[in-house]
């Protein structure tokens, strides 16, 4: 399958192509599906996985190639396996996930996934995400399981209450925030709580944001400009557009 002009651009940016094969699926909730895959040599080629590692996966939409980023869930470099998790809605990716069965293949390009926690490691985490970024949220929490973390998670469906959060009550505080006013309600909730939680000295904190693009931009601007966190203490990436 050709990848069109996007594929050409990614190749020029030294993207590497792989083909994954489906080994099984799980319907986690009515709106959330997990697909298990072999990695096509990806993890061996990259020397393993890092927290929140993602790839650009190719789907067909109206006969044209279309790519979306997906986080590797529970990557196993020895076995050469991992999973993807899909928040099901309209679109080519969701349609593919609903129909996926063992033996199916899907192409992907590795480009743009770099992420490392700051050094020294943060003593406190503040995480803001939603169903689209839940795999990355869980990956981040798995990487530093004993680090105290406060998570704001935007929900859109009743089934979001059943999503597989990897939180440890001893270290993590999870706030579910219903999506209202195109994400503005989440922004207001974070602005109301974060300054008090950060306190006067935020040098040991790390803020990780991955929501829809406009919400992510609003919160990233807020924590950098108004709360004064340095660039190396904030990671912000828009995961989708409404």
Structure overview:
Strands 4-3-7-1-2-6-5 form a seven-stranded antiparallel sheet. Strands 10-9-8-11-12 form a five-stranded parallel sheet, with helices on both faces. It has helices spanning 4-12, 42-46, 92-99, 134-143, 184-198, 213-226; strands spanning 16-29, 32-38, 54-61, 64-71, 73-76, 81-87, 105-110, 124-130, 149-155, 172-178, 205-210, 234-236. By secondary structure, the chain is an alpha/beta fold. The model has no long low-confidence stretch (mean pLDDT 92). The protein contains six helices and twelve strands. The protein folds into two domains: 4-110, Elongation Factor Tu (Ef-tu), domain 3; 124-236, 3-Layer(aba) Sandwich (Rossmann fold), CATH 3.40.50.80.
For the secondary structure, the number of strands is: 12
Order of helices and strands: HEEHEEEEHEEHEEHEHE
Q: In DSSP terms, counting alpha (H) and pi (I) runs of 4 or more, how many helices?
A: 6
Major β-sheet profile: 7 strands, antiparallel
Rounded mean pLDDT is: 92
CATH topology value of the largest domain? Rossmann fold
Q: N-to-C terminal Cα separation, in Å?
A: 28 Å
Q: What is the name of the CATH architecture of the largest domain?
A: 3-Layer(aba) Sandwich
User: What is the 3D shape?
Assistant: globular
Number of domains: 2
How would you name the CATH homologous superfamily of the largest domain?
Nucleotide-binding domain of ferredoxin-NADP reductase (FNR) module
Structural class: alpha/beta
The strand line-up of the biggest sheet is 4-3-7-1-2-6-5
């Amino acid at each position: 399958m050709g990848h069109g002009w996007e594929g050409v651009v990614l190749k020029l940016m030294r993207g590497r192509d792989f083909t994954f094969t489906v080994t099984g699926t799980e319907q986690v909730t009515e709106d959330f599906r997990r697909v298990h895959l072999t990695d096509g040599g990806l993890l061996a080629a990259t020397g393993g996985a890092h927290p929140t590692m993602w790839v650009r996966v190719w789907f067909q939409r109206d006969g044209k190639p279309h790519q979306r980023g997906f986080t590797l869930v529970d990557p196993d470099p020895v076995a050469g396996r991992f999973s993807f998790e899909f928040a099901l809605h309209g679109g080519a990716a969701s349609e593919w996930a609903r129909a996926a069965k063992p033996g199916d293949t899907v192409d992907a390009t590795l480009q743009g996934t770099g992420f490392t926690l700051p050094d020294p490691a943060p003593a406190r985490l503040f995480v803001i995400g939603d169903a689209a970024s839940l795999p990355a949220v869980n990956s981040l929490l798995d990487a530093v399981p004993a680090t105290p973390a406060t998570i704001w998670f935007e929900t859109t469906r009743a089934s979001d209450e059943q999503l597989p959060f990897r939180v440890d009550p001893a270290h993590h505080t999870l706030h579910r925030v219903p999506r209202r006013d195109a994400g503005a309600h989440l922004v207001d909730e974070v602005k109301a709580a974060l300054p008090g939680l950060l306190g006067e000295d935020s040098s040991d904190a790390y803020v990780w944001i991955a929501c829809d693009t406009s919400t992510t931009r609003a919160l990233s601007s807020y924590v950098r400009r108004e709360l004064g966190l340095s660039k190396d203490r904030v990671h912000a990436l828009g995961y989708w557009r409404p």
